[in-house]
Structure formats: structure tokens, C-alpha cells
Amino acid sequence: MRIKLLGKAVVVLTLVAIFGLLGLWQLDAANDLQEAKNAAPDPIVYQLSDLASPATALDSRSVAKKVSLRGNYILTFRAPNQIDQQGLMSDWEVGLMQVDESSAILVVRGYWKDRLTEPRIAMSTGVDLQAVVQPRQFEDRVRNSPGVISRIDSSVIVALTDLDLYDGFLVATGEQVSEGVISRDRIDVAEVKSKATGYYWQHISYVIIWWLMAAIVIYLPFYRKRQERDTLSA
After folding, report:
1. Do the domain assignments include residue 43?
2. Residues 24 and 81 in one domain
3. Is residue 23 part of a domain?
4. What is the domain extent for residue 19?
5. Is the pTM of this model over 0.70?
6. What is the pLDDT, as a whole number, of residue 223?
7. How far apart are CA 92 and CA 95, in angstroms?
């Protein structure tokens, strides 16, 4: 009898723990949605090395942060069929900027049609860059071909350089060389969607459901015991 009761207690406690954890999971998801909705832009301008390292996955907390760095462009690519924040499709100019002796990162400089409007940048020219960090793209827009990249992702160009590449890419907001500021139209990329899915009150309703299930599981043994007692007394 004791073993039977112990087995029932273990089952009940296990189910209560599972339902309780499921409720906490949904509560965390609801809080993540609120934090993503209320998050204010970070005003700090970081050094790239403060947020990322070459040949290392980009931390999602670094996305959309501002950076400042100096380097020189060593390769230029056309990235076709890109969509900006306004939903407009166009081809973008993407440069590979070498930031030190051993590493480089992709930089969205502007629209491809404007690539010849600023003749002062040569491959050996040092460029002071202000930019915003973005995660790599996962969906191909076209096929890779000479001078064309299928998506803005360092993994598609690893065969073209011996440098260690940063994960993700930068979107230039400003460029300056020794002769002065580079003036050209910049691109507002589409905002990265939060990984938290659903709606706040939807998650809260799931919290209530899972915790109600936990309460029911706790109550059932007492209900059954009362039913058995009522049956015996009848």
C-alpha cells in the first residue's frame, strides 16, 4: 500500500512540475515580448571588438547596436534583390572591409547604382566607418556568381579570402576618408524581428491554463479519496 501511495505521489509531483515549468516558459515568452516591444535604441557607439569576434557566431544582443571602426575595402560585391525598411527592392553595394591584419567584415555601403558617384575610395584607402550591426541573411536572393553574392553572409565568400570573417554584417551610416566625408544615400534595413513569437495575452492565457492543470492534478487525489469515502459511507 505504501509503495502504491508513493508511486501515485511521484506521478502527481512529476505532472505538477511539468505543468508548472510549462507555465513559467510561457511567462518568460510573454516577458520577452514586452521587453522587445519596450526596448529603447542603445545610444552608445561601440568598437566592433566590443560586440563581436571573427570566426565566432554573432551574439543576438549585439544586433542593431552602433559601431565605429577603421579599415579598408578589399573586395566589392553586388547584392541583388534586397528589401529595405520601406519594402522597396533594389541592388545593394556590399564591401568587404579588412579591419586588421587577419580579419574582415561585410559592409552594406549603399545602393549599387551609386557605386561610381564617389571616386575617392580606393582599395588602399583608410576609411573611418560608422555603422549598425546586423545578423547574417539566411535566404538566397540569387545565385552566387563573380562579383555577386547570393545573400549578405560571410559564409558565401570564405573561398575568396584567407582572412577570418566576422559573422553578420554592418550597414554603413557614415564613411569618411582623409579628404572628407563620403556623401551618398544610405540604406535603412528592415528591422530584425524578435525571436519571441505570439502575443502577450496569448502567452498569459497559456500560463493560466498550464497552472490550472497543475492545480487540477493536485486536487484530483483528494477528490478521488472523498468520492471513495462517500461511496463507503453510503
Report:
1. no
2. no
3. yes
4. 2-38+197-233
5. no
6. 75
7. 10
